[in-house]
Design goal:
The complex is a heterodimer.
Chain A: H1 18-21, E1 27-36, E2 39-49, E3 54-58, H2 65-72, E4 80-85, E5 88-89, H3 94-103, E6 104-107, H4 119-130, H5 135-148, H6 164-176, E7 182-186, H7 194-209, E8 213-217, H8 221-227, E9 230-235, E10 238-243, H9 245-250, H10 255-264
Chain B: H1 6-13, H2 16-48, H3 52-67, H4 70-80, H5 90-116, H6 119-127, H7 132-162, H8 174-185, H9 188-217, H10 219-237
Helix pairs in contact in B: 1-9, 2-3, 2-5, 2-8, 3-5, 4-5, 5-7, 6-7, 7-9, 8-9
Protein name (chain A): Amino acid ABC transporter ATP-binding protein
Function (chain A): Involved in beta-(1-->2)glucan export. Transmembrane domains (TMD) form a pore in the inner membrane and the ATP-binding domain (NBD) is responsible for energy generation.
Pfam families (chain A): ABC_tran (PF00005)
């Protein structure tokens, strides 16, 4: 695997991207708009994510970060522009939406585990009902991923019995059970107590090391610095700046990014 | 008659004729709950639909049946509709009235239950590629149902007593049969004491059933408060707990 942690934005077209160049990008957004009434959540957003790339999306609150990644699996419907996920156009047609959702997994800020099901049932429901897997197969699969996120021993508990960090790791395992090609993280650690952030980031880091394509909205700049291939900085619905982490943190080009970084890195 | 005869009251309580009336009351209640739940679920789904015709109809339905007395509804169905050539048996009339009326109340309970399930639950289901049916059946319905049980219990308690109105259209349920016994023997207090005891027994039994249901469907959240407390030390010693 040609892992290149030093991948820069311009480097996508450079040496390391050679084998990926002919590949269909994991995500391609062209002039995407999203409005909520008078409010423009996404304002002509262009974004291209190569397969295997790890993107951290950051920016002040209300800048459209969450909307951006929620449009990728059509949980939010974009109003204008084109979105392709693994070459499938998100044109609001049912079958394309379904196809895209099968390729993507999502982790939410508030976990959104099903509270009335055990951890194991949370993980087996989708493989069994959407993929027609047998219960035994689905359980094996679920235990595989629960082991991977290091909570196999909590399989029979209900989400409410787990800590926030454990719940979020279950949510990651649950998403992985559908074997997605792209993982979307919407502020996965924002609802966690500080001492639990680490265990979730650790799980995400492991996933990144395995070559998963990841788009992650987060304020965890340490994680961004270490794991991201590229930082996408948003403000007022626009992608203001894209750069490799070291470049972005050292000398952000835009004034807005500079003030943002000043505010969050203290 | 200048005194109350407990013996007579007890005799009425074990009166076979009255007991059969109790069975009719139970039957009316059970049938109206089942019918009302099915119809109410449909009305609630229509109310939540984005189709303006469906939600408009449902709104009208709820407004109409909650806004008029059950007594009038029963009388209209029983004595009014035949004027238009629509005739049902007495029991059918009572059931139609009770179901139509109960559905309006249950629809609002069902709707509030579904609205209380967070949007995030649906989003998670979408993100996992669950079909709309599986999302409804396995994700939203069980959670909504748990929230519906307390108001549902309340409504069923009311319904149980509201079946007494069917006596007006000559359904021989508990109330009607009490009336009949009373007119035969004029032991007013004694007869109604027996009937009152039966209503209290029925509502108490339902209370117990409702508590059972709440416990059963609340087991995951109950597990949270009870077991977490009990098992906290175990969780903390497990190597996993806090990284």
């Amino acid at each position: 695997m040609s892992e290149m942690p030093m991948n820069t934005a311009s480097g996508v077209a450079g040496a390391m991207a050679q084998p990926q160049l002919r590949e269909v990008p994991a995500v391609r957004m062209e002039a995407v708009y999203k409005h909520y009434g008078d409010f423009t959540a996404l304002n002509e957003v262009d974004l291209k994510v190569a397969k295997g790339e790890k993107i951290v999306v950051c920016g002040p609150s209300g800048s459209g970060k969450s909307t951006l990644i929620r449009c990728i699996n059509h949980i939010e419907k974009h109003d204008e522009g084109l979105i392709y996920v693994n070459g499938i156009e998100l044109d609001h047609q049912r079958k394309n939406i379904d196809a895209v959702r099968r390729d993507t997994g999502m982790v939410f800020q508030s976990f959104n585990l099903f509270p009335h099901m055990t951890v194991l049932e949370n993980c087996t429901l989708a493989p069994m009902t959407a993929n027609g897997m047998s219960e035994a197969e689905a359980k094996d699969l679920a235990m595989h991923f629960l082991t991977k996120v290091r909570i196999p021993d909590q399989a029979e508990k209900f989400p409410g019995q787990l800590s926030g960090g454990q719940q979020q790791r279950v949510a990651i395992a649950r998403a992985l059970c559908m074997r997605p090609k792209i993982m979307l993280f919407d502020e996965p650690t924002s609802a966690l107590d500080p001492e639990m952030v680490k265990e979730v980031l650790e799980t995400m880091r492991k996933l990144a090391e395995e070559g998963m394509t990841m788009l992650c909205v987060t304020h965890e700049m340490g994680f961004a610095r270490e794991v991201a291939d590229r930082i996408v900085f948003m403000n007022e619905g626009k992608v203001v700046e894209q750069a490799a982490p070291e470049e972005f943190f050292k000398n952000p080009k835009s004034e807005r990014a500079r003030t943002f970084l000043d505010q969050i890195i203290h | 008659m200048s005194h109350f005869s407990p013996t007579a009251a007890v005799n009425y309580f074990f009166n076979y004729f009255l007991m059969k009336g109790v069975l009719v009351t139970i039957g009316l209640t059970v049938a109206a709950v089942i019918g009302g739940l099915i119809l109410g679920m449909g009305i609630a789904l229509m109310r939540m639909s984005s189709n303006p015709v469906l939600s408009g109809f449902s709104r009208f339905y709820i407004w109409f049946f909650r806004g008029t007395p059950l007594l009038i509804q029963l009388v209209v169905i029983y004595s009014g509709l035949p004027q238009l050539g629509i005739k049902f048996s007495v029991i059918t009339c009572a059931l139609v009235g009770l179901i139509l009326n109960e559905a309006a109340y249950l629809a609002e309970i069902v709707r509030s239950g579904f609205m209380a399930v967070s949007a995030g639950q649906r989003e998670a289901a979408w993100a996992l590629s669950l079909s709309p049916w599986v999302t409804f059946r396995r994700v939203t319905l069980p959670q909504a149902f748990r929230l519906m049980i307390p108001p549902l219990g309340n409504s069923i308690n009311s319904l149980l007593k509201a079946t007494s109105l069917a006596s007006v259209i000559s359904v021989e349920e508990l109330m009607r049969r009490s009336d009949m016994l009373m007119q035969e023997h004029f032991q007013i207090l004694e007869v109604y004491a027996a009937a009152t005891a039966y209503y209290l027994i029925l509502t108490s039994v339902w209370d117990a059933v409702q508590r059972r249901l709440e416990k059963h469907f609340g087991r995951s959240s109950a597990a949270k408060s009870r077991r977490v407390a009990a098992r906290a030390p175990v969780a903390q010693t497990s190597a996993e707990a806090r990284a």
